[in-house]
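[recover] target loaded
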């Protein structure tokens, strides 16, 4: 991970992604639109569309406008946070990649859309996939810690001593996750080492693409640099702002629908 927030390094001609022809770009755009439309139709097929349209027709548009505005703010905040952790990508590239990632997370199972971010940053900015995966894991752990801490605080304020057992469980998770974040480098090295051992045990490392991917991941972990204090504070601050923006966004949607 970068030690300072520096501008992206200029890549040499050999590092530049190959230029694609206009016909190739059009074909990929058409394929992308078809896949996106299919995913949206798959989601809509599971909905009671008549009820949804009825709700939308009676919604308060001022609250909906506020919700969409907050959605744009949340996208920019997420992109800014990840851009702080990249070394090659420009901010506008990260914004576009995070927007695609958010869309795919909404329409694919098991949040498989998460994997689109490292791919897109590699394709369009030359950011190594392994480094992006490490950064993505760190960002998700930070968000989980913030959500758990905020959940515990809300539960304490609303339920107090009545929710003592639940507060204890939440507190335990927060403590464990705090230890994981403080010792992130150790657990990262251990996890990659364990993954390598498992892959070798089942014989998958004999495949070139598996061994190559594992080697790149090991290099990304070995070359990871600690975040300086200033960058840590900025990333924590933006992460808290992301979670708060999400909560206000949900509130706006609920108000728009009359809840």
């Amino acid at each position: 991970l970068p030690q300072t927030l520096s501008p992206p390094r200029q890549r040499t001609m050999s590092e530049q992604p190959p230029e694609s022809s206009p016909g190739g770009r059009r074909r990929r755009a058409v394929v992308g639109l078809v896949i996106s439309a299919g995913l949206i139709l798959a989601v809509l097929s599971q909905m009671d569309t008549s009820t949804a349209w009825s709700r939308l027709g009676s919604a308060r548009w001022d609250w909906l406008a506020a919700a969409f505005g907050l959605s744009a703010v949340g996208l920019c905040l997420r992109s800014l946070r990840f851009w702080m952790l990249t070394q090659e990508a420009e901010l506008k590239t990260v914004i576009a990649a995070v927007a695609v990632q958010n869309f795919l997370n909404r329409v694919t199972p098991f949040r498989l859309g998460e994997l689109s971010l490292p791919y897109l940053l590699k394709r369009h900015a030359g950011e190594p996939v392994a480094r992006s995966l490490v950064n993505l894991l760190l960002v998700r752990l930070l968000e989980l810690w913030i959500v758990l801490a905020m959940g515990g605080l809300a539960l304490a304020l609303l339920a107090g001593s009545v929710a003592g057992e639940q507060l204890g469980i939440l507190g335990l998770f927060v403590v464990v996750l705090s230890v994981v974040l403080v010792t992130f480098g150790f657990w990262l090295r251990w996890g990659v080492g364990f993954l390598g051992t498992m892959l070798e045990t089942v014989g998958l490392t004999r495949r070139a693409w598996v061994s190559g991917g594992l080697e790149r991941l090991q290099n990304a972990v070995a070359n990871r640099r600690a975040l300086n204090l200033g960058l840590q504070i900025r990333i924590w601050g933006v992460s808290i702002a992301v979670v708060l923006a999400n909560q206000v966004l949900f509130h706006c949607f609920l108000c728009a629908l009359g809840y």
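[recover] notes: Confidence is low (pLDDT under 50) at residues 1-15.
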